[in-house]
Design a protein that fits this description.
Blueprint (H helix, E strand, L loop, with lengths): L6 E5 L7 H11 L3 E6 L2 H11 L9 E4 L5 H14 L5 E4 L7 H4 L7 H28 L3 E8 L10 H21 L4 E8 L13 H11 L8 H12 L10 E4 L16
Parallel strand pairs: 1-2, 1-4, 2-3, 4-5, 5-6, 6-7
Helix pairs in contact: 1-8, 3-5, 5-6
Length: 266
Amino acid sequence: MLLRGKRALVMGVANHRSIGWSVATALHREGAELAFTYRRDRSKENLFKLLDRIGGASRFLTFPCDVSEDAQVEAAFTGLGAQWDRLDIVIHSIANAERSDLTGSFTGISRTGFGHALGTSAYSLISVTRRATPMLEAAGGGSIIAMTYDAVRKVVPGYNVMAVAKAALETEVRYLAAELGPLHIRVNAISAGPIRTRSSRAIRGISKLRSVAETVSPLRTNATQDDVSAAAVFLSSDLSRAVTGNIIFVDGGLHLVGTPVGPPSA
């Protein structure tokens, strides 16, 4: 029960395969008290069905929050603050882009699509952090965790505009960590391998990426949602009290590998 007595806000649960949901169940298992946000009515229905698996929606705080709308972010944290006097953990598992800006050419990314992807997937971390900071400070500090993918340092076909958004997100992690460190608020991101989620289905060739990971990553394996949630538990707990501003790779070591030439000969 590494997180007993801690309160966590989880943002971005889509379905049972989503990283956000896996992290939420892991935090719950370790004793954290949970609150959730959802984007739309359909997201709410999906979330409530999932919450039935861990005791029912009535046991948890839930708030509508489309992070592209400042008023909704403000309202969500106002509602949360009315119920909780402090917050220990924020899980930012939010990303969205127009499919055409993922599957089309990079030069074909639209101005509108670029703004949408950056606003929803990257600026939202700043917006959420700004509003979460007073509640985290009231707890004497805490942990903010975002989710990224290793398409920032290398080209991943089909990631396109989301790669730019993740580059912005990772930069924000470092700047937020530097700014909030004096308040004992830690900010980190987890970079997962090519995990099968609803979002990853938009990446062209995701199955091939997973096959490559199993062949050439140092651990010869694909990371799973459970692997990511284990790292999130560590970053949420006091065990990570001196860890901030980091991109934690949970990918079997795939990020270390250059050209995927296959395993060495026996």
